[in-house]
Design goal:
The protein has 674 residues and is of the alpha/beta class. The chain has 19 helices and 32 strands. The strands form six sheets. Strands 16, 17, 18, 25, 26, 27, 28, 29 and 30 form a nine-stranded mixed β-sheet that branches. It has an eight-stranded mixed β-sheet with strand order 6-7-5-4-8-9-11-10, with helices on both faces. It has a six-stranded mixed β-sheet with strand order 20-13-12-24-32-31.
Length: 674
């Protein structure tokens, strides 16, 4: 498949900002960057500087007050720093925007502050304390990539950690107003380059504005060359001048030349959207859309969380490749996203527990793989760390024969309870029905439903399909390859005096910390089977896996009076879905017939990419193939779909959005002549 024009940088942790604290004109301590020898904001009055340079110069009070579009107003910033600019933009939005408006903030940062330094810096403005607390509660780990934060019901912040130019090149979204910030060009020449201004122009809406504190020649020349019109206006404080500007006609997105089929069509109407399937994929998609003001009908033949999402416990975990690939990038982003999402949704941990996850290295092969992973991924220890058997045993609370990879941000979830909670999101209406067919009209979709009352029809603007292994049973999705995978978990009563693992432990299978007096473990993995009846042989296989994970533990259970007879053991079997490449599908459903016609010449020469935009079943979307790691993928995929439908910036880099795209297999099959 043709490569994207810009490769993503290595997946790694970032170096936190190194600060000195210097007294400002009021006597308070202000942060000063050791890397760049410069201040983060004016020592005279940082808040007033932000208002003058960025808010007023971009005419935000007037523009936000007049905002009536059903998409959010988008602000892009180069250099998050202390977050002062973004918090002030949020306050300006709350003061001036109408109640139905939404705000989307995007900010890049190569040297993120630690949470403690961020807290100290923002403490200078007590009136921003409530907003700062929301930011601090969700402050992400210092890992390169996109981190989505929900500041409130109407305001979203995407932190793009990494080099500003590289981050904007990979941004999938467009901006209405730019805060061109960062340390002064003389102190940070690596950022103020022509490539930065070109990336800004390419990610701008027509008429997008910009403002910056500097009038340096390199900035003026770079902006003009990229297509921005600039002019000088009065600066703030001791600065005589600053720049403002706008771009009337941004350049075309050059990514279309390499992957024209993946770029989306227009979002279309979205007053009412139906989501088919109320497992984790469907329920999280419904909640994501409803949070944006969309009226959602959530449809399932059973209750929310009744299928593969109906287990008592499910693990929030990932297994990342030893060498970085796009699938690992997606799953790590999903793990970090789900952790913030769960904390925001359920801060009291009634639906989940942040226990951490330990991925054991129980064989020489796995030990070597994990060693390669650690060498290739210099990630912070609060994301993943390699530990020995002694440390693993201490963390787990039970004796272990092996060490492994410890993921502190992992944990376990009550999937069925979570799905029910999501189905109760304001704006979501649940209907128990079976969708027989989908039929498109010029402006909407017509769903034929079978209910207790017979056959009914439902008209809806758009449809999201999230029915796991059955997602390709519709005419529009029948060419989407999906594999059913049967899995069975087992459960045993746990005596009160029995020690139990404090965290989830994974190997060939898993064992979760006890819940309601039961120990849950498993799960079998049987591709191409869709039988969900319990099987004694699978209970026996799960017991064998439990013995490998926790040596001697089954015998101690039996000595404590617990029966290990597979014929009497409790458990649950369900069918999950997987794609051929084990990456989920999240995005619009391609018109497979048109794609095979439009891109047929790829079979002869994969480098001859036709300049033909991909054709889709307009308003039809899919979230499927989440397999056994749905808790780390489905919530992020829900954001991918909801963001595209609602014409918002995406929560992942464009390359990773393409990697999740449902049409990727069509293109691959064409290239391979299948």
């Amino acid at each position: 498949m043709p490569a994207a024009p810009d490769a993503l940088p290595p997946l790694a942790g970032l170096t936190p900002a190194s600060l000195d604290w210097q007294a400002d004109e009021t006597g308070s301590a202000s942060p000063h960057s050791r890397e760049f020898g410069d201040v983060y904001f004016s020592r005279h009055d940082g808040r007033a500087e932000t208002r003058h340079v960025f808010l007023d110069a971009n005419q935000l009070p007037r523009r936000l007050a007049a905002w009536r579009l059903d998409r959010p107003f988008v602000i892009g910033e180069t250099g998050f720093g202390t977050g002062l600019n973004m918090l002030c933009a949020w306050a300006c939005f709350d003061e001036h925007a109408p109640p139905e408006a939404r705000l989307h903030l995007i900010s890049t940062e190569l040297y993120p502050l630690t949470r403690d330094d961020l807290s100290r810096a923002l403490a200078a403005w007590p009136d921003l304390a409530e907003r700062a607390a929301c930011l601090l509660a969700q402050w992400p780990a210092a890992v390169s990539g996109v981190h989505r934060l929900w500041l409130d019901a109407r305001v979203t912040l995407d932190l793009h950690f990494g080099d500003a130019t590289e981050r904007l090149r990979h941004l999938d979204g467009r901006v209405d107003a730019w805060f061109l910030d960062g340390f002064a060009p003389a102190r940070n020449p690596g950022m103020w380059q022509a490539s930065l201004f070109e990336a800004m122009a390419a990610r701008s809406r027509p008429g997008a504005t910009l403002a910056t504190f500097t009038c340096a020649g390199v900035v003026k020349r770079g902006l003009a060359a990229a297509g921005f019109r600039w002019r000088k206006v009065s600066g703030f404080g001791r600065k005589r001048d600053m720049l403002v500007g706008e771009i009337a006609e941004p350049p075309a997105d050059r990514r279309r030349r390499s992957t024209p089929w993946f770029l989306p069509s227009s979002p279309g109407p979205r007053r009412h959207i139906s989501v088919i399937g109320s497992g984790l994929a469907g329920a999280s998609a419904a909640a994501a859309l409803a949070r944006r003001g969309v009226q959602v009908t959530l449809i399932d033949r059973e209750a929310p969380g009744a299928g593969a999402s109906g287990n008592t416990q499910g693990l929030l975990y990932v297994k990342l490749a030893a060498e970085t690939n796009d699938q690992s990038r997606c799953y790590l982003a999903g793990l970090l996203h789900s952790r913030r999402w769960l904390e925001s949704l359920d801060p009291h941990h009634r639906l989940w527990q942040p226990s951490g996850v330990l991925q054991l290295a129980s064989s020489p092969r796995e030990q070597a793989r994990q060693a390669r992973f650690a060498d290739n991924h210099p990630l912070p220890s609060d994301v993943v760390e390699r530990i020995d058997a002694v440390a693993a045993s201490q963390l787990a609370g039970v004796p272990l024969n092996h060490g492994g990879l410890h993921y502190p941000l992992g944990g376990w979830v009550r999937p069925q309870a979570l799905c029910r909670r999501l189905a109760e999101t304001p704006g979501v209406t649940f209907r128990r029905a079976h969708v027989q067919s989908l039929q498109a009209s010029s402006t909407s979709w017509r769903l034929a439903l079978t209910t207790d009352k017979g056959t009914e029809h439902l008209e809806t603007d758009q449809v999201v399909i999230a029915t796991a292994s059955l997602a390709n049973r519709f005419t529009q999705t029948e060419r989407l390859p999906l594999q059913p995978v049967r899995g069975q978990v087992s459960a045993l009563p746990l005596p009160d005096h029995m020690p139990a693992p404090h965290m989830a432990i994974c190997g060939g299978g898993y064992v979760a910390p006890p819940h309601n007096g039961e120990l849950t473990f498993g799960a079998t993995f049987q591709p191409n089977q869709n039988d969900d009846t319990l099987c004694e042989a699978d209970h026996q296989a799960n017991l064998a896996e439990l013995a490998r994970l926790l040596p001697g533990y089954p015998e101690r259970l039996e000595a404590a009076g617990v029966s290990l007879d597979p014929a009497t053991m409790r458990g649950r079997a369900a069918v999950r879905a997987a794609s051929p490449d084990k990456t989920p599908y999240a995005g619009p459903v391609p018109d497979a017939t048109r794609w095979r016609e439009d891109y047929a010449r790829l079979a002869k020469d994969a480098t001859r990419v036709p300049d033909t935009p991909g054709q889709y079943h307009q308003g039809l979307w899919i979230s499927a193939a989440h397999g056994s790691r749905g808790l780390a993928s489905a919530p992020l995929c829900a954001e991918v779909i909801a963001s595209r439908i609602c014409d918002e910036p995406m929560p992942l880099e464009a390359t990773l959005i393409n990697h999740l795209h449902p049409g990727r297999r069509l293109i691959r099959d064409l290239i391979q002549g299948k």
